[in-house]
């Protein structure tokens, strides 16, 4: 484990995005399956391409304020070396991916231009 997330649990809904690449693809696939089987949270598609603002391959997990503490502790323990973006879902995509976001692991540079204009 590295740093614990500093984002406060102030929002009703959240997403996490686990980032991976060709060399960590199977590790990410196994982590995704663990989330589905153990946590009963909604997990999105397994993207082996860049999607939206995400600079790496990724998959998304949706969770709520009630799940926040449990999920953050669980994903930080199980992610091994994978980077995870965690952000609030407020309806303001730019703010959600900047001011309402934090990282477990090494932060990556998001393509925030997609939220402009």
UniProtKB/TrEMBL annotation:
UniProt cross-references to InterPro entries, sorted A to Z: DOPA-like_sf, DOPA_dioxygen
Top-rank taxon, per record: Bacteria
Pfam family, any one: DOPA_dioxygen
PANTHER family from the UniProt entry: AFR070WP
Protein name as annotated: DOPA 4,5-dioxygenase family protein
Source organism (scientific name): Celerinatantimonas yamalensis
Lineage, top ranks: Bacteria, Pseudomonadati, Pseudomonadota, Gammaproteobacteria, Celerinatantimonadaceae
């Amino acid at each position: 484990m590295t740093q614990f997330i500093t984002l406060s649990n102030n929002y009703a809904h959240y997403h996490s995005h686990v980032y991976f690449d060709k060399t960590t693809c199977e590790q990410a696939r196994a982590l995704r399956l663990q989330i589905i089987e153990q946590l009963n949270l909604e997990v999105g598609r397994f993207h082996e391409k860049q999607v939206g603002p995400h600079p790496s391959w990724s998959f998304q997990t949706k969770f709520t304020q009630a799940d926040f503490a449990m999920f953050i502790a669980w994903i930080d323990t199980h992610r091994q070396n994978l980077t995870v973006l965690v952000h609030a879902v407020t309806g303001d995509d730019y703010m959600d991916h900047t001011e309402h976001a934090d990282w477990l692991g090494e932060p990556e540079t998001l393509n925030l231009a997609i939220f402009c204009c």
